[in-house]
Amino acid sequence: MGKAEIIDGRQLAAELTRKVRDEIASARKFHRLTPGLAVVLVGENEASKVYVRNKVQQCEAVGIKSFAHHLPADIRNDDLLTLIRGLNGDDRVNGILVQLPLPAQIDPAAVLATIDPDKDVDGFHVVNAGRLATGAPGALVPCTPYGCLLLIKSKQTALAGLKATIVGRSNIVGKPMAQLLLNENCTVTIAHSKTADLAAECRAADVLVAAVGKPRLVSGDWIKPGATVIDVGINRVPVPGGTTRLVGDVDFNSASAVAGAITPVPGGVGPMTVACLMRNTLIAACRQRHLEEPEL
Ligand code: NAD
Q1: pLDDT above 70: residue 1
Q2: Amino acid 86: pLDDT
Q3: Is the confidence at residue 278, as pLDDT, over 90?
Q4: Domain Tetrahydrofolate dehydrogenase/cyclohydrolase NAD(P)-binding: where (predicted)?
Q5: Is the Cβ atom of 55 under 6 angstroms away from ligand 1?
Q6: The CATH number, out of the four listed (3.50.50.60, 3.40.50.10140, 2.60.40.730, 3.40.50.10860), of the domain defined by the range 30-134
Q7: Ligand 1 pocket, 171 CB below 6 A?
Q8: Is residue 2 over pLDDT 70?
Q9: Which residues sit opposite 245 in a β-bridge?
Q10: How far apart are CA 278 and CA 122, in angstroms?
């Protein structure tokens, strides 16, 4: 057994969800505000259906009104954009989420660009990426990296001056994660598939975030003793007996013997992502109504 503290994402997500639910109850009571989230699913991708169902259930649990749009896999690009423009103009809808991936005939960049940045609760619009990068007000921050930051802060209260390495440079996880840790005054390295000595970059990190999509890529001997390790990866691998299981990008057994604190997979980053989506929807609704936004 390892010695690292386990960062319990389910528990932290439950706490955040409770706070969001309480804030929504008081917004309804004092401002007659019921936040609304439109969730757009295109096609029959089974994993996407599960994610969307989970998001709609969470909306119900916290008091957000959900507007689910399940569209056929062969919908035309223009028709999807027309739907999004309609949602942009619908006052009941404070947040819009289009579940990725999208079918081949759809241009995902055009879809993301069409969402009103102030309703872009996934935080993927270039305007929100720019706000986050420059510190301009009004950013909606992507849910997964924001959840990671909350997980890190649950163990590391003083982040300034720490070395942080993020493995992965995607627009939805790696890059916004780097911006968030830079904002916390960490010294940030972004490592990726072309990094010359990945092990050394990881070993230098007080805070290590793995967002790659390669099962157990990061082993214990890549980890600085005492480091905080956040495992974003979700990888399904075969196990003896013909079944499969989920593992992260970090080799949990060897890493937890060295790290100071570590997230498990499942039960780490995943639950925080949905809780942060609820948070973003509440924040977007408060901004649209010119109400003071809660600190969450
Ligand atoms: P992505 O495929 O867009 O990006 C992966 C990144 O990893 C790329 O920047 C690439 O340069 C880097 N990379 C690939 N191979 C590498 C290697 N051998 N060494 C170093 N870097 C390498 O993926 P993503 O969307 O950022 O997601 C990453 C992982 O996180 C996936 O497993 C995904 O399922 C998971 N994920 C989880 C959540 C969650 O809520 N828990 C949310 C989003 C993504």
Answers
A1: no
A2: 98
A3: yes
A4: 142-288
A5: no
A6: 3.40.50.10860
A7: no
A8: no
A9: 237
A10: 10
